[in-house]
Each structure stands twice: as structure tokens, then as C-alpha cells.
Amino acid sequence: MWHDGVVSPHPPITRALKVLGERLKQVPGIEVIDFAPHLHDEAWAILSSLYCPDGGASDLATIAESGEPILPLTQHLIESNPCVKKLTLEQLGYWEEEREEYRIEYAKHWNKTGVLKGGDDGEGEFEEREDVMDVLICPAAPGVATRHNSAKYWGYTAQWNLLDYPAVVFPVTKVDKRVDVYGSERKKLKPLSDLDAENHKLYDAEMFDGMPVGVQMVARRFEDEKLLA
């Protein structure tokens, strides 16, 4: 998965995915396919709503008791996030139901990477498939090491927390300022979102030159052994 449809990764992340993909294609028995993200923006809304069901009141009270100022990223999560609000039991139940429905939708989306094995389930979808994708390789973050107080998007890892999918992060290469630059075509593309536009501005090839670049491998629920075998 090249990006999640919300925030595009910086050039070194994309290069790492390409390098890894090309090497894996040379390994006998491994088939590499492209995987399209499925409504990761909706996942982010669900996550943001469930992070602080009390609207962040308990966290803010603890911070106030400490006498220390609230840190910028904590403030970003609690006070600047429109999804963070105090939920009633009914509202909390709604978002928990949304989470479970999304898990079902994503499981079906993942299953579609396989080929038809059984019959129609009555809704135009085929439940039984074979050769379904074993693991997914994708960015672990939209960039490499970040400047202080600038990591405002963690959807590439939070996504799998929401789905309860295991994931491992591993190094692939290092940033090379000579090649890891935005091309003219990328500069002309419309940002995927406001978060994407903000993330785009954070990249500095000179500053990040030589830093390690990692990606992550994701498996389905209860399939942790596929990642660590």
C-alpha cells in the first residue's frame, strides 16, 4: 500500500517501498500486488472519537494538577481535534458499533485480494476465497524522524490498532538527499487532505539526509506468527 488516501508519505518512504517490492518480486513463491486503502479517513474519525470519550477531561485535569503546561501535540489531540468531545453512553455505543462495522468492511476488502473459491453470499460478494493476501507492507509513518511537535498524524499505525491487526516495523534504507526529492509531477498534485498538505511542507531532504527509513508489515487479527516467523 503506497499511501492511505489521507496523507502521502515523504519521498524516502516511497522509495523504500519500491526497493523492497522489487526485491520481493525476485523471491520464488512470493507474489507482490498493489493494495488500495479502504476508507482510512473514516477510520481516523472513529479513532479520534474513541481516544478520549470524556472529552479529554481526565487528561487535562491531571496536566493542570501537575502545574506544567500542556504539550503542543497533546493540545493538538485533545483541544484541536473536532472529534474529541464528551460522549454520552449512547454516543459511545454508536462509535463502538461504527468500529465493529468498519472491521467487517475492512476484512471483506482484504478478502477481495484473493480469488473466488465458493459461491455467492447473496449480496453480490463471495465469502470463500483462496490465495488471499497474507501480509501488507505499507508506510509506518508519513515521514522519517520528525521535528519536535510536528507529528500530528499517526494514522499509519493507529489504523491497525483500530482493526486489532498486528504489525512490525523494520528498517529498509536511509534517506539520500540526492534522490529523495519531490518530483515536478508530485508538486503539481492536489493534496489528499489538509493533513497531507501540512505533511508535505515538513519534508527537508537536507535535514533528514542519512536518517533510517523503515516500513511496516501488517497481518490480520490473530495472525501474528506470519510477521515473526
Explain what you see.
The longest helix is centred in the middle third of the chain and has 23 residues, at 89-111. The mean pLDDT is 90. The strands form 2 sheets. This protein has a 3-stranded antiparallel sheet. α2 runs antiparallel to α5 (89-111) and α2 packs across α6. It contains 10 helices and 5 strands; from the N terminus they run αααααβββαβαααβα. The chain is mostly helical and 229 residues long.
Summarize it.
By secondary structure, this protein is mainly alpha-helical. Helices cover 43% and strands 10% of the residues.
Largest sheet, order of strands side by side? 3-5-4
Q: Please estimate the helix content.
A: 40-55%
Shape verdict: globular
Cα gyration radius (Å): 20 Å
Annotation, overall tally of beta strands: 5
Unreliable segments (pLDDT under 50, ≥5 consecutive)? none
Give a quick set of tags describing it.
3-stranded antiparallel β-sheet, two-stranded antiparallel sheet
What's the topology here?
Elements: H1 11-25, H2 40-51, H3 57-66, H4 72-78, H5 89-111, E1 115-116, E2 129-130, E3 136-139, H6 155-163, E4 167-174, H7 184-188, H8 194-202, H9 205-208, E5 212-218, H10 225-228
Antiparallel strand pairs: 1-2, 3-5, 4-5
